């Protein structure tokens, strides 16, 4: 338990019957009239939905401990992703639902941050940008600018993104894992 006066950005609260919410920002407000209160912006750990919530100053809120560990993705086992803790070599099977869109950019050997609460995997997070190889893309046709200078390309994970016309099959590129956008070539 913590008081709303102790809130910090990144702190995880357990509200509304056990739902986990991360504090994005908070502000202590002391109006001229009436009691002080704390205005917060909270993000749902599971869904990513952001809400505004106001608490009376000094109200007790339940905090949750989130265990974040860097783990290496080993292989797929049916609908499960198997991650290995590089310190203990323990293996952890993570459901596809917890991995979410991160699966679009995940290949064997990548290190990801796995967040757990009371033994349950909440989400898997990759670095902001990863390097992946283009598995297939059609050659860019000179003079074809009708698509804004981009063409579809399939990554080694099977995910398709838009890349500039000069990118060829087999090239290594940087991809933003949050948006799926092309960031640039990787110089060998």
UniProtKB/TrEMBL annotation:
Main localization (coarse): cytoplasm
Any GO molecular function: translation elongation factor activity
An annotated GO cellular component: cytosol
Subcellular location: Cytoplasm
Keyword set, alphabetical order: Cytoplasm, Elongation factor, Protein biosynthesis
Cited Pfam families: EFP, EFP_N, Elong-fact-P_C
UniProt domain Elongation factor P C-terminal: residue ranges: 130-185
Cited InterPro entries: Elong-fact-P_C, NA-bd_OB-fold, Rib_uL2_dom2, Transl_elong_fac_P/YeiP, Transl_elong_KOW-like, Transl_elong_P/YeiP_cen, Transl_elong_P/YeiP_CS, Transl_elongation_fac_P
Alphabetical GO biological process terms: peptide biosynthetic process
Transmembrane regions listed in the UniProt entry: none
Every Translation elongation factor P/YeiP central domain range: 68-122
Annotated metabolic or biological route of this protein: Protein biosynthesis; polypeptide chain elongation
PROSITE patterns assigned: EFP
Annotated function: Involved in peptide bond synthesis. Stimulates efficient translation and peptide-bond synthesis on native or reconstituted 70S ribosomes in vitro. Probably functions indirectly by altering the affinity of the ribosome for aminoacyl-tRNA, thus increasing their reactivity as acceptors for peptidyl transferase.
UniProt xrefs under PANTHER family: ELONGATION FACTOR P (PTHR30053), ELONGATION FACTOR P (EF-P) FAMILY PROTEIN (PTHR30053:SF12)
Protein family according to the UniProt entry: Belongs to the elongation factor P family.
Entry-linked HAMAP family: EF_P (MF_00141)
Designated name of the protein: Elongation factor P
Gene: efp
């Amino acid at each position: 338990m913590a008081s709303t006066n102790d809130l910090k950005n990144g702190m995880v609260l357990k509200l509304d019957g056990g739902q986990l919410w991360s504090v994005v920002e908070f502000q202590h407000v002391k109006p001229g009239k009436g009691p002080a209160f704390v205005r917060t912006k909270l993000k749902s750990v599971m869904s990513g939905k952001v809400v505004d919530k106001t608490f009376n100053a000094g109200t007790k809120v339940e905090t949750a401990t989130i265990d974040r560990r860097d783990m290496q993705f080993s292989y797929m086992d049916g609908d499960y992703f198997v991650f290995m803790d590089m310190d203990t070599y323990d293996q952890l099977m993570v459901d596809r639902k917890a991995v979410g869109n991160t699966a679009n950019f995940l290949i064997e050997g990548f290190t990801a941050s796995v967040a757990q609460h009371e033994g349950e995997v909440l989400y898997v997070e990759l670095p902001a940008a990863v390097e992946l190889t283009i598995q297939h893309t059609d050659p860019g046709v000179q003079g074809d600018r009708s698509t804004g200078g981009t063409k579809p390309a399939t990554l080694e994970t099977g995910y398709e993104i838009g890349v500039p016309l000069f990118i060829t099959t087999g090239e290594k590129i940087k991809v933003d894992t949050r948006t799926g956008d092309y960031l640039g070539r990787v110089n060998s």
